[in-house]
């Protein structure tokens, strides 16, 4: 709506304190294969994907726990935004971590995290596509359940 630039930036910044849009992430990770799924399958996949990301993301972030996080900048274009941050470890180089956000119903939510230049969603999209094409969607679900 008529949010000022400042209020908008504040909202985006707060959102990067991660509130994930899991369904959005899951659909982007399955890409073309999402279309073929029933609603029931989508709900199940979103749940499995959420578990996977929480483990992957939390493990990565915990490595940097207690380290300073530096806010670098943000930019918004319509309903999409990027918030750039850096983990500043006690030793070694800073680690860039960017949050990609999408606005729905006036709320900003994270739909991708780019750690050291690598997109979580793109990374999984490649893996998932490989499994589905070489085997099947059912096999992908089985593997995701095994990891749980």
Concise account of the structure shown:
This protein has helices spanning 5-15, 22-30, 32-35, 39-63, 120-134, 137-147; strands spanning 68-77, 80-88, 95-104, 107-115, 118-119. It has 148 residues and is α+β, with helices and mostly antiparallel strands.
Key terms:
alpha+beta, globular, 148 residues, 6 helices, 5-stranded antiparallel β-sheet, 5 strands
Describe the fold and architecture.
This protein has helices at 5-15, 22-30, 32-35, 39-63, 120-134, 137-147, and strands at residues 68-77, 80-88, 95-104, 107-115, 118-119. The longest helix is centred in the middle third of the chain and has 25 residues, at 39-63. The protein is of the alpha+beta class and 148 residues long. The chain has a five-stranded antiparallel beta sheet.
Number of strands: 5
Order of helices and strands: HHHHEEEEEHH
Let me know the average pLDDT.
Answer: 86
Strand order of the largest sheet: 1-2-3-4-5
Rg (C-alpha, Å): 17 Å
**Can you give the helix content as a percent range?**
40-55%
Please describe the topology of this protein:
Elements: H1 5-15, H2 22-30, H3 32-35, H4 39-63, E1 68-77, E2 80-88, E3 95-104, E4 107-115, E5 118-119, H5 120-134, H6 137-147
Helix pairs in contact: 2-4, 2-5, 4-6, 5-6
